[in-house]
Design brief:
By secondary structure, the chain is of the alpha/beta class. Helices cover 42% and strands 14% of the residues. The chain has 15 helices and 13 strands. The strands form four sheets. The chain has a four-stranded mixed β-sheet with strand order 11-1-12-13. Helix 12 links the parallel strand 9 and strand 10. It is globular, with a radius of gyration of 20 Å. The relative contact order is 0.15.
Length: 382
């Protein structure tokens, strides 16, 4: 499933809706879409049309390059004080025996497992555990950094950080500065979900709100830390809610320039309190990625997180504006496998990732966390 039309061919279609033609012309001229035009794309944009727009933008930004990195995850715990309705991963504190709580030693053993291997990033996220506080995680970060200073430490969602900082009675800036001094280098994008309060009150009412999430990421940017951004889609949100979410991210990126990439995350409905809601189709997934690519014009990188989508669907997104597939992961994340994703044991070797990318005519390029190129695999074998 690919889009074969070029943007110039799209513009020649006499049957094209005039409002869609205006959007296509704006994309051709590298002009920003309005929120209303973003909603219109969701309402009227067929897959082939939005795919052609997205491919035009991706080709202009990256040519045929598709990025990945060599990383692994540490998930300290799935015990959590919050009860998000969409979550299949966490266990409430009173039922913590059903979950896991890793010790400092166990987490350091996970780091040591990669001695001598060319991984470049450790990604640390998990539940919000009341006893794993700011001091605990600063110690963990410091130990990882001391043991392997070349390893980029990306960690903690805004939800985790908000709880840690409030419990420590520190401001966001004070808390982030403390973690930065311990060795934290960037933040992942989790916990954003949907910013709009009408949706947030329905799916995750008790954790940091959209303004709080944006404040934490904006503060990190001002401290010189890069971060990622996400959006959980395909549940109770409307097209307007999606565009509002992306528009607020776009506005912060205008202000700070600190986001590395945007990562749409598909809602999965296994074993959670929203299991009655059907999951989106692959067609709708691909339309979402394509529209995100053309709407979020100041985000250079659009990532499809393959453990959540599955390998085949992630591969399809490469024809709809995506230029990044995350990393090798190495079977170290459970967040999406517990929610029913296709990848129950998410691990791909560098060769697997390169094969997947090359199969659709793209060029695999290994990157570091902030998108410096490490190795272009068009020039040499895997």
């Amino acid at each position: 499933m690919t889009t074969n039309l070029s943007l110039s061919e799209v513009l020649k279609q006499s049957s094209l809706d005039k409002t869609l033609l205006t959007i296509a012309e704006k994309i051709q001229n590298s002009e920003r879409l309005t929120d209303e035009e973003g909603v219109l794309l969701f309402e009227k944009g067929e897959l082939g049309f939005v795919g052609a727009l997205a491919n035009h933008v991706a080709q202009r930004l990256h040519g045929n390059k598709v990025y990945f990195n060599r990383n692994f995850h540490i998930e300290p715990t799935n015990v959590c004080v919050f009860t998000c309705n969409f979550c299949s991963y966490s266990r409430v504190y009173k039922h913590r025996d059903d979950g896991w709580e890793l010790s400092m030693e166990q987490m350091m053993d996970m780091v040591k497992k990669y001695d001598g291997q060319p991984v470049t990033e450790v990604h640390i996220v998990g539940g919000v555990h009341p006893k794993m506080n700011l001091e605990f995680f600063c110690e963990l970060i410091s130990k990882i950094h001391a043991y392997r200073p070349d390893l980029h430490i990306k960690g903690f969602t805004a939800v985790e950080l908000d709880y840690m900082f409030r419990k420590a009675k520190l401001s966001v800036e004070e808390g982030l500065q403390k973690m930065k001094e311990a060795g934290l280098q960037s933040l992942p994008g989790g916990g954003a979900e949907i910013f709009h309060p009408d949706v947030r009150m329905e799916i995750c009412p008790d954790k940091v709100d959209g303004d709080g999430w944006l404040n934490i990421h904006g503060t990190a940017h001002r401290l010189g830390m890069h971060t990622n951004a996400t959006m959980l889609y395909g549940h109770i949100e409307s097209y307007t809610h999606r565009v509002d979410h992306m528009s607020r991210l776009r506005a912060l990126q205008d202000e700070t320039g600190g986001f590395n990439c945007f990562i749409p995350l598909k809602f999965r409905n296994k074993d959670n309190d929203m299991s009655n809601i059907p999951e989106t189709t692959v067609i709708e997934d691909l339309r979402l990625y394509a529209i995100a690519r053309v709407f979020m014009d100041n985000f250079r990188n659009l990532k499809a997180y393959w453990p959540m989508l599955g390998r085949q669907s992630a591969q399809l997104t490469l024809s709809f504006g995506v230029n990044d597939l995350d990393g090798t992961i190495d079977d170290t994340t459970k967040i999406y496998s517990m929610a029913g994703s296709e990848e129950q044991t998410p691990s791909m070797s560098t060769e697997d990732l390169c094969d997947l990318i090359q199969a659709v005519g793209k060029t695999p390029v290994e990157r570091d966390t902030v998108y410096n190129e490490i190795r272009d695999y068009s020039a040499e074998p895997v």
